[in-house]
Amino acid sequence: MRFNEKELVSLSRQPSEMAAELGMRGPKKGDVVKRRLVKLIVNFLFYFRTDEEEPVGALLLEQCRVEKEDSQTFSIAFLDEAERKYVFECDTEEQCKEWIDSIIKASYEFMRRNLIYYRTEIHRLTGKDPLEQYGISDETRFQVSNGQQLKPRDTSSL
């Protein structure tokens, strides 16, 4: 993925959905747990050295799997590199659950599935597409037909 480093640094300074100092171990063999300030901003997980303002790195939370390792530890692995995973150690079991839940909800794919689900449910209950009032109709990417089935728009002609 291409990104502009200055824009990422700027994004890392935005208000976060969650932030805490966590133990973090990178995906390389031999990596040790280091204390990092971890911030969830939109669908990026930024991590910082605890005494620095610029991030050491960022994880784009798309196409990834978040798993609970034990009561206070969770991991993030990306689907195209499942053998490489980042491990995070929390202070409490409750904090671990909060991080897992927030990271899962941060992905575009999660939000997209929710939009499709609720759009379909509203259409099923009312007979109307809730997005039509905003000028979003048959030309939208995700179609609702008879309130049940969803069809992606054909993008081959784009």
SSE order, one letter for each helix or strand: HEEEEEEEHHEE
Count of structural domains? 2
The total beta strand count reads 9
For the largest beta sheet, what order do the strands appear in spatially?
Answer: 4-3-2-1-7-6-5
**How many strands, which pairing sense, and closed or not: the largest β-sheet?**
7 strands, antiparallel
Shape: globular
> What integer is the average pLDDT?
84
Radius of gyration: 19 Å
Distance between the termini: 21 Å
The fraction of residues assigned to DSSP E strands is 35-45%
Protein name: Pleckstrin homology domain-containing family J member 1
GO cellular component, one term: trans-Golgi network
Pfam families: PH
Plain-language structure description:
The protein folds into 2 domains: 5-106, Roll (PH-domain like); 111-152, no CATH class. The radius of gyration is 19 Å and the shape is globular. The chain has helices at 5-12, 93-106, 108-126; strands at residues 18-25, 34-41, 44-49, 57-60, 64-70, 73-78, 81-89, 142-145, 149-152. Strands 4-3-2-1-7-6-5 form a 7-stranded antiparallel beta sheet, with helices on both faces. It has a two-stranded antiparallel ribbon with strand order 8-9. The protein is built from 3 helices and 9 strands.
Task: State the main characteristics.
9 strands, disordered C terminus, 158 residues, 26% helix, two-stranded antiparallel sheet, 2 domains, alpha+beta, PH-domain like, globular, seven-stranded antiparallel β-sheet, 3 helices
Offer a quick outline of the entry.
The chain is of the alpha+beta class and 158 residues long. The protein is 26% helix and 35% strand. It has 3 helices and 9 strands; from the N terminus they run αβββββββααββ.
